[in-house]
Amino acid sequence: MISIIGGHYANGRSALKTSCSFEVVRTGVKGHQKELQSIPLTCIPRFVETLLNKKELVINNLDDIKEIMPATYELKKDQEVASFFDIILNNKDGEPIGFLALQYCKINSVNFNREERNEILKLKFFIEENLEKMVMKK
Amino acid sequence: MVEIITAFITKLTPLIVSITALIVAILKSKKEIENTLPKKIQKQCSIDIEITNRLEEIKEYLKADRVQIYDFHNRRALC
């Protein structure tokens, strides 16, 4: 899914990036979509690796990733995130195409019950399906 | 003299036909692009709005402060 053409490093290695393509915020919370464009995956390797392996990531206190994912910590801290839940998005072949991020400005906010998790999964499938439609239309 | 003119016209005709066909094809393609692009933009916008609405809903339901979608890609920039 991730195109093999496009930007490359000097040794020909593909320069994969991630960009925030959609963002909604609570009233009074600052949006950061403009700054979150074309972030090289090489800047946040541990975060990406963990997300790809575990398929989702629950962090209830941002300080928990300060040592293990320092770049991700800084990135989220700049957005005043205190706790977050990220879940991978796949294409119809099961390949990762991005991720959905739910963020909170207070710690210990990620404690979803079964119903809430179901709603997140429904949204995940909805996004995957619609992003696929966009690809097919090109 | 008549033979030369006839030969000239005979050779010129396929060229004129080809050029005319090319012009017609270019005009047709141009019209198709003009008709397709706005439609694509419209469809893209409706999908974007649908996704944004769903993000708003989940934000309210889960009382989140911010909901984002990130894409993996290999382009210089998305916007």
Give a topology summary.
The complex is a heterodimer of chains A (138) and B (79).
Chain A: E1 17-25, E2 39-40, H1 45-54, E3 56-59, H2 70-78, E4 83-90, E5 96-104, H3 114-137
Antiparallel strand pairs in A: 1-2, 3-4, 4-5
Chain B: H1 2-61, E1 66-73
Q: Could you describe the 3D structure shown?
A:
By secondary structure, chain A is of the alpha+beta class. Chain A has a domain at 45-137: GAF domain (Beta-Lactamase, 2-Layer Sandwich), CATH 3.30.450.40. Chain A contains three helices and five strands. A three-stranded antiparallel sheet of chain A has the order 3-4-5, with helices on both faces. In chain A, strands 1-2 form a two-stranded antiparallel sheet. Chain A starts with 16 loop residues before the first strand and ends with a helix. Chain B is mainly α. Chain B is rod-shaped, with a radius of gyration of 28 Å. Chain B starts with a helix and ends in a 6-residue tail after the last strand. The model of chain B has no long low-confidence stretch (mean pLDDT 88). The A-B interface holds A 1-7, 14-26, 29, 31-33, 36-38, 41, 79, 81, 89, 96-105, 109, 112, 116, 119-120, 123, 126-127, 130-131, 133-134, 137 and B 40, 43-44, 47-48, 50-52, 54-56, 58-59, 61-79.
